[in-house]
Design brief:
Number of helices: 6
Strand order of the largest sheet: 1-2-5-4-3-6-7-9-8
Bound molecules: S-adenosylmethionine
CATH architecture: 3-Layer(aba) Sandwich
Number of strands: 9
CATH superfamily: Vaccinia Virus protein VP39
CATH class: Alpha Beta
Order of helices and strands: EEEHEHEHEHEHEHE
Shape: globular
Distance between the termini: 34 Å
Number of domains: 1
Helix content: 25-40%
Structural class: alpha/beta
């Protein structure tokens, strides 16, 4: 079970800079908390007592532009934003509060762990993995997230008919993603599955588009075997 941690408001003096080590969630100045899911094996309920609704997950949400656009467009859905970097999540937390959004949950979590054991089976209706680090150097390739191992874990959390949406500007990584997703049993290309949000951009995507780089989006639907 989660319990509250006493972290003072940011203007409350030196102790406010304490890192929330061993805390289960991080309370900012407003109402949205950051659930700290590093160093835990708990399974979390992505709807957090909100009742069963559609749940979207922005994995590695960064500064949150896409996540915020999605949450504003679909206030009836729960939108989860996850990232390992607490500083980025805190920035998103402040924006969520500023916009008065009530349908966002922020998770400090490592992507593979989130897919492997932190979320319940079949709990997510659309996963967005946008502009993940491409690790272009040959000696760093092993750090890339999207492998058949990761896709196998991801399939566990996808609800039937759920959508996996991925974007990258890195052509070699795109080829790898297409090959890995193409081999995964149960994933079928679904090119129109993100048409409703084609106008929403991430912070990295905007930056890359401004630099003249091309960002390609792929989407797949999960059709489980009978
Ligand atoms: C290139 S940025 C993209 C951010 C955002 N999706 C965008 O497009 O603006 C990658 C993000 O993934 C996060 N990240 C990297 N490795 C991660 C991991 N193993 N688990 C969770 N988040 C990770 C980083 O902290 C960063 O915010």
């Amino acid at each position: 079970m989660e319990k509250a941690c006493k972290v003072k408001p940011r203007n409350a003096g030196a102790s406010s800079t304490r890192r929330p080590r061993n805390k289960l969630f991080f309370q900012g100045d407003g109402t949205v908390v950051i659930h700290i899911l590093t160093n835990t094996y708990s399974v979390i309920d992505p709807c957090f007592a909100r009742g069963a609704r559609e749940v979207e997950l922005d994995m590695g949400c960064g500064k949150g532009r896409f996540l915020l656009g999605l949450a504003r467009r679909y206030p009836e859905r729960v939108v989860l934003g996850s990232d390992v970097m607490l500083g980025r999540l805190r920035r998103v937390q402040r924006k969520v509060d500023r916009f008065g959004l009530r349908n966002v949950e922020l998770l400090r979590a490592e992507n593979l762990e989130l897919a492997a054991f932190l979320l319940p089976d079949r709990s997510i209706h659309r996963v967005h993995l946008l502009c993940p680090d491409p690790w272009p150097k040959a000696r760093h390739r092993g750090r890339r997230l999207i492998t058949s191992e990761f896709i196998g874990r991801l399939l566990r959390i996808l609800a039937p008919q759920a959508v996996f949406h991925v974007a990258t500007d890195h052509a070699p990584y795109l080829e790898v993603i297409e090959a890995v997703a193409g081999k995964a049993s149960g994933l079928e290309p679904a090119p129109t599955a993100v048409d409703d949000i084609a106008d929403l951009r991430t912070d990295f995507e905007l930056q890359w588009l401004a630099e003249g780089r091309q960002v390609r989006h792929l989407s797949y639907r999960f059709i489980p075997a009978e």
